[in-house]
Amino acid sequence: MINEMLKFLDQSPTAFNAIKNFTDELDANGYERLSEKEIFQIEKGHKYYVTRNGSSLIAFNVGERLDNAALKIVASHSDCPGFKVKPNALIKNGKFTRLNVEVYGGPILSTWLDRPLGLAGRIIYRENGLVKTKAVNIDEDFAIIPSVAIHMNREANNGYKNNPQVDMIPLVALGDDFDLINYLKEKTGLDVVNYDLYLSLRQKAVIYSNKQFFSSNHIDNLECAYTSFKAFLNNFEEDAINICAVFDNEEVGSLTRQGANSDFMYYTIKRVLESLNLDYPSTVARSMLVSADNAHSVHPNHEELSDPVNRPCMNQGIVIKYNANQSYTSDALSSALFTEVLKKRDVPYQYFTNRSDMRGGGTLGNISNSHVSIVSVDIGLPQLAMHSCYETAGVKDFEYMIKGLSAFYQEKIQIPE
Length: 417
Known about the structure:
By secondary structure, this protein is of the alpha/beta class. The protein has 9 helices and 20 strands.
């Protein structure tokens, strides 16, 4: 099954591509597409999904017995750090044509050097007088960001800091004849008028080291998005509404109309409950959210960067993430509720905290909780090289996550007073 995920990763270099691939599978599995522009008509025993901006998704299936209904939500994100193409994107000087890009999120810049790169994202096109959108992944090597030879940059191995506007500009062509819009029109056959495009890594995902590890672009956070989606797809719980949410723009703070810090989750849940004649406050009070975003494995070359005892390792199970300052939502109650589910299915788990003298990162759990206040736990899978363009994770953990989240969607969760 992991080979299917690697294929998905290769075909999902941006949030737009990932959500398009998810919705294609939802369509194939009989989920009904809803529009935010229309009134929701929800029925027990049916399954639905809604998207926003083509880069965020909320899918849900509805149980048959909803007298004391609960929501069981797994939320992840669809975006990853990288480089977005600017408007007026071409930089020409007579000798070269380069692509003017800006940093999206927090990538490890050096990992993008000297690799064949493509273009992916979405295009805006004109058809019969209407403006339409389409996810695209142009299947060819398009550009490269060349590093400076060591003879010309003697500091290359001494902590040289790459400047995004100087060192990270991709080379597209010799001369100045290249036109980006014409290129997009040629590759898509559409009347392109605008774009949201990103550089995409052309290197394919691989499994190696006696099938212990896999490496790919966009493991953070499409591994969690994919495993939660697969666990959700065909799992109903008769007394619950199961929800799989995948938000865009987590890597830049989630403060967009399609991010976790929007009204997307709140209004979707509110409209679903109203259509089913269910009370919003009491239903939410019986509910639970799992915020799924990958975690740092202890590093083989830098074990000193991890907490002395809460240091997850690849292929040893799902990670439950804690932070005293609430960068993560896990507390003793939410962790216990979730680990009880894992114990019933013999799914291994481990804990992560930052070193007490390191700040660490955060994720979308608390952000979405500010809109839908709910018992919540933050989890992930351990990986190396987070925010590199080519990350590494464990094969067994992929299987543990699907098994563990399937159990979450199947088991009844009783929230204590």
